[in-house]
């Protein structure tokens, strides 16, 4: 009986530790992503990007904060020479030009998907399995 109680206690403790670890990871994710908000980065690390030095983000049309953690979008399909969007985000579009190897290339200049805090947090959660 004592062994069963011990095992149950160990399982509860372990579950509590797991919950604490998940909570800690979640706090760290929010802190890391927060460090990459454009306005914060512009002040703390102006040398890292021309946009910081000029005080203008590369997505001036985006409403709200631009987050720079995913400067290179993880959804960009770089397996194809012409590129593409793995999630078919309507913010992207094809740019056509006869000098391009495929006659076109995927253009993300109007898409702000990777610059949303929630998207950056989601990717970090995926990496850390949280
Ligand atoms: S920036 Fe937007 S359109 Fe471009 S790959 Fe990422 S999600 Fe797709």
């Amino acid at each position: 009986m004592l062994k069963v109680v011990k095992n149950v206690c160990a399982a509860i403790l372990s579950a509590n530790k797991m919950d604490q670890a998940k909570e800690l990871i979640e706090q760290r994710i929010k802190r890391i992503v927060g460090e990459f908000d454009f306005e914060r980065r512009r002040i703390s690390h102006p040398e890292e990007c021309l946009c910081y030095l000029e005080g203008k983000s590369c997505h001036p049309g985006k409403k709200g904060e631009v987050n720079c953690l995913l400067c290179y979008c993880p959804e960009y399909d770089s397996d194809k020479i012409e590129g593409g969007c793995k999630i078919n985000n309507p913010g992207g579009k094809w740019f056509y030009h006869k000098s391009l190897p495929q006659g076109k290339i995927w253009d993300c200049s109007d898409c702000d998907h990777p610059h949303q805090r929630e998207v950056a947090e989601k990717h970090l959660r995926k990496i850390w399995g949280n």
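Residues 2-73+111-128 form one domain. Residues 1 and 7 are 10 Å apart (CA to CA).
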